Structure to design on (229 residues):
């Protein structure tokens, strides 16, 4: 049973380009969460999605950032017109439906570098 | 709003010594508590969690943490550490019955020296 798969592992973008980060949850998991880890910081919540629905996006920057979890395919975190401050590790996590809380499984992350 | 404070950003210890990584939280509601471990260039792995019941919880590799409601703490301990325990450890909190999001502390880098 594969874990949470994130790709790419490393992504380099020039300022102004778009970054697309992908996350495939564990089999049977229908809840996806995105977190961002800045250097010397803990993880910060960005968004919580279920299939075709954004449940909580209270941690998403108001501009340039969007997330989706379509009926088919991986969840996508999209960053438009990247800036140097977007350089960070982005982690996706998934959990099964229901209130089995504490069942977060994290992926290995995508390390975005903006040059 | 919730917050988590990990008082020590770095903890160096010698192999086979005991270690305690401190975590305090702030919340106006009842919480769930977690410790995650992150090895270099990897994702986070759940180490242990407190949801309810016994306030002392243990992991399979010898770590334990005790939930202290009066002191709002969830310190992580291990009586004898190994070189392989070198990693960064994150404490996290979530409110019971709310959105399934975690609030993390800034992490503690544990370095075990021979």
């Amino acid at each position: 049973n594969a874990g949470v798969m994130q790709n790419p592992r490393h992504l380099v973008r020039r300022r102004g380009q778009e970054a697309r980060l992908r996350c495939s949850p564990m089999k049977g998991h229908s809840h996806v969460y995105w977190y961002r880890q800045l250097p010397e910081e803990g993880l910060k919540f960005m968004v919580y999605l279920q299939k075709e629905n954004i449940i909580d996006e209270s941690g998403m920057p108001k501009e340039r950032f969007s997330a989706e979890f379509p009926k088919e395919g991986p969840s996508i975190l999209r960053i438009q017109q990247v800036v140097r401050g977007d350089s960070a590790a982005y982690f996706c996590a998934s959990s099964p439906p229901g209130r089995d809380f504490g069942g977060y499984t994290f992926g290995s992350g995508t390390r975005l570098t903006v040059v | 709003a919730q917050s988590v404070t990990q008082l020590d950003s770095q903890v160096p210890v010698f192999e086979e010594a005991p270690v305690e990584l401190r975590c305090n939280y702030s919340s106006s509601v009842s919480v769930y508590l977690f410790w995650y471990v992150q090895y270099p260039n990897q994702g986070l792995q759940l180490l242990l969690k407190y949801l309810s019941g016994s306030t002392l919880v243990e992991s399979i590799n010898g770590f334990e943490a005790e939930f202290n409601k009066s002191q709002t703490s969830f310190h992580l301990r291990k009586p004898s550490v190994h070189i392989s325990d070198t990693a960064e450890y994150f404490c996290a909190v979530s409110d019971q019955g709310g959105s399934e999001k975690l609030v993390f502390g800034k992490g503690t880098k544990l370095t075990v020296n021979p």
Observations:
- Chain A has no helices and eleven strands.
- The two ends of chain A are 36 Å apart (CA to CA).
- The CA atoms of residues 1 and 52 of chain A lie 24 Å apart.
